[in-house]
Specification:
The complex is a heterodimer of chains A (about 250) and B (about 80).
Chain A lengths: L1 H7 L2 H9 L1 H23 L13 H28 L2 H33 L7 H21 L4 H15 L2 H11 L19 H33 L4 H13 L1
Helix pairs in contact in A: 2-9, 3-9, 4-5, 4-7, 4-9, 5-6, 5-9, 6-7, 6-8
Chain B lengths: L8 H6 L4 H65 L1
The chains are: A mainly alpha (about 250), B mainly alpha (about 80).
Amino acid sequence: MWQWLYKLGSPRHFYEMTTGLVPWLTGVSLLLLAAGVVWGLGFAPPDYQMGDNFRIIYIHVPTSMCGMGAYVLLATMAAMHMIWNIKMADIVAKVSAPVGAAYIALGLITGALWGKPTWGTYWTWDARLTSSLILLFLFLGVMALRAAYDSESAGSKAASVLAIVGVVNVPIIYFSVQWWNTLHQGTSKLGGAGSANPPEIWIPAFFTGFAVIGLFFVAVILRSRNEILYRERRTQWVQDLLQKELTHA
Amino acid sequence: MPEFRFDSFSDFLAMGGNASFVWGSYLAFALVVVWNFWQPSLERARIVRLMRARQGKQLQQEATAADLRSHQSAQQQQGEANRG
């Protein structure tokens, strides 16, 4: 296990280990997504108050949660890079920022589209909404800070510090619905024992939930692989790999 | 087996009068999913192109250097011949 993790820290091993994983993870995620979306849009019973609007939940909840998870991943990788100087951690930190930003932006957009017919407004300065918007700005700030330096290592250090400091915002988002009197509803138990939802509502939510997480990791892995190729472009193994690809093409 | 909750396909598209909100959300998500596959494939093509160009440049430089060397040696030979 430790050896496996240790190997994952080496860009070359990461590249080689993910080559076979990507098609599988993509296939399983897309199948789950198709099943969850068809079920959620067509077969889940409409909500007794919100009608068909509630079907936005199958996108809104997983993308928002995955956006928060992405920030935790970003901050963890940034810390690992700062403490142990692991190259692969810096690569994952760099590529998870734009993907996470897209996810939390989706959470905000789908939330606005859900808010208009339900609350009567696209936006309100509610604690949950505001702290989620701050998370989007943190992602964008981390990306901009990295890009602002000419030196790659200086940029990655500055971005890492901001990423680590910004992680304080994640529990604020999570607990905002308890700490403040928000318009956004509190967390309710989605499924299983003790949930008010019948299985035909929560099963598709689990499908899209796992699909969204799977697709997040596919995006992070694909981008990491590109970053590895670029950073290691002068090494023999990358040259050999591309040579083989060019002759095959 | 769950049953289809709409009477017709047009009913399904209408989403109980909330079509733009529901379909808008799913469309935004679909765009991000597509972008998450598209961006890495464009980036990969860019890197391969970059490396190929660099490799081509390297070969060209080597060829130019070899050319120069042969030119110089030819000049030298000619100079020696003239002196002689």
